[in-house]
């Protein structure tokens, strides 16, 4: 522990809540024992959530319940709580999660010796069901940060990078209170779905001066699979809603970046890489949407679901095509490995051949409708999606090497260190999509 005798900074914890009040007491009590202020925002639940929050407030004067008069979504609930907070530091915790005892003191001690605006700590995943258990290992690696310090523009440049980035969840990070309140004051009053964390992370990164990740800090207890339909199949309608909200998040991020570049809303953030940073987020959002489509929408419904996705991502068909080429790459590489190991006639190899062809056909249909994707720049002269071109090139190389199309591409395209590993199930929505298929 630090030997500093300076006063302990005040800490606020914001908990957005909607129905599922069963776990709220465990969550609130885990943070009320550590924080100076706990704000529970009931987003107009239809169960007894607000009554439970009131009883917890009667039990502990640090707990302050707020109730929305209409359901507005997690982004709005977090915004209400953050703007009502007064702490020097603010943390967000989901209603069915909790903090390990002593977490806040350990974070304050660390940031005292390593000052930063964003303090990123780790997660212990507590899987509630079989589907969650299958995803827990991959999630643990993704959600526990690499110890490092980032300054200024490199925070945003790093977080959403294709490799070497860090997760974009708002929970399991401690934020300087003034920074987070300023960020949420800039957030529009709109409803997102699973992408509100990414949207707010983009804003916070843009405003922050420093970021630090705490080593060996798995203190946020993530109860994976509690009270949700983790692992359940999607319908086309649910896929449509998810794609709509992810595409909306991308539009909002583009609007925010344009405002920063133009100095609107008292935001004049000078950096010459706004288009590249928006492109990073575009690729992450497309990846998330398409992983949901691939993993949780039944195959017979995928064509219909893809058309819904393309409608919402109409300005960015290359981002969607890129993900299809990623699936082609993965299946073609798995087939190539099977062929080299003498298993080219196995049922698994036949499946990979069929899937590679199916996803290739989908990607080619998109390209047939958008011949401009073949160009390296669009009509406005902006660079084309390099991620799309790179994935397409590798996928085509693997297809040639398997003999599915044309002549073998040669060793350069098929060396194991230049190709992806066989695909893994992505499992958790919005958490490990970008971890998989790399």
Automatic annotation (TrEMBL):
PANTHER family: GLYCOSYLTRANSFERASE (PTHR43685), GLYCOSYLTRANSFERASE 2-LIKE DOMAIN-CONTAINING PROTEIN (PTHR43685:SF2). GO terms for molecular function: transferase activity. Coiled coil: none annotated. The keyword Transferase applies. It holds the Pfam family Glycos_transf_2. SUPFAM superfamilies: Nucleotide-diphospho-sugar transferases. Residues 402-429 are annotated as: Disordered. This is Glycosyltransferase family 2 protein. Residues 12-139 form the Glycosyltransferase 2-like domain. Keywords: Transferase.
């Amino acid at each position: 522990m630090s030997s500093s005798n300076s006063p302990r900074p005040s800490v606020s914890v914001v908990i957005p809540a909607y129905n599922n009040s069963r776990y709220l007491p465990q969550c609130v009590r885990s943070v009320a024992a550590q924080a100076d202020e706990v704000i529970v925002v009931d987003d107009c639940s239809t169960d007894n959530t607000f009554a439970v929050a009131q009883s917890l407030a009667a039990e502990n004067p640090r707990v302050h319940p707020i109730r929305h008069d209409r359901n507005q979504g997690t982004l709005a609930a977090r915004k209400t709580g953050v703007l009502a907070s007064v702490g020097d530091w603010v943390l967000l915790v989901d209603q069915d999660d909790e903090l390990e005892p002593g977490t806040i003191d350990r974070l304050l001690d660390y940031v005292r010796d390593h000052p930063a605006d964003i303090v990123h700590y780790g997660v212990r995943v507590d899987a509630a069901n079989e589907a969650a258990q299958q995803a827990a290992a991959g999630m643990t690696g993704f959600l526990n940060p690499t110890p490092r310090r980032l300054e200024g523009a490199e925070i945003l440049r790093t977080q959403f990078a294709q490799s070497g980035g860090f997760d974009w969840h708002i929970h399991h990070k401690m934020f300087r209170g003034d920074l987070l309140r300023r960020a949420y004051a800039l957030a529009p009053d709109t409803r997102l779905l699973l992408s509100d964390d990414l949207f707010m992370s983009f804003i916070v990164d843009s405003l922050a001066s420093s970021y630090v990740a705490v080593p060996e800090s798995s203190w946020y207890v993530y109860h994976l699979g509690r009270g949700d339909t983790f692992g359940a199949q999607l319908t086309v309608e649910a896929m449509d809603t998810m794609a709509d909200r992810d595409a909306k998040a991308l539009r909002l991020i583009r609007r925010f970046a344009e405002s920063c570049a133009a100095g609107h809303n008292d935001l004049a953030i000078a950096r010459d890489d706004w288009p590249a940073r928006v492109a990073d987020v575009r690729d992450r959002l497309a990846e998330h949407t398409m992983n949901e489509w691939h993993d949780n929408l039944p195959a017979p419904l995928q064509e219909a679901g893809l058309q819904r996705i393309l409608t919402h991502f109409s300005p960015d068909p290359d981002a969607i095509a890129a993900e299809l080429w990623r699936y082609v790459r993965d299946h073609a590489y798995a087939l190539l490995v099977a062929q080299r190991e003498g298993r080219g006639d196995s049922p698994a190899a036949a499946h990979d051949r069929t899937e590679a062809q199916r996803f290739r056909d989908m990607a080619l249909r998109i390209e047939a409708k958008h011949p401009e994707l073949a160009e390296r720049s669009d009509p406005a002269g902006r660079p084309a999606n390099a991620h799309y071109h790179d994935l397409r090139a590798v996928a085509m190389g693997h297809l040639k090497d398997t003999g599915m199309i044309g002549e073998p591409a040669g060793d350069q395209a098929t060396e194991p260190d230049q190709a992806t590993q066989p695909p893994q199930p992505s499992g958790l929505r919005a958490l490990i999509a970008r971890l998989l298929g790399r």
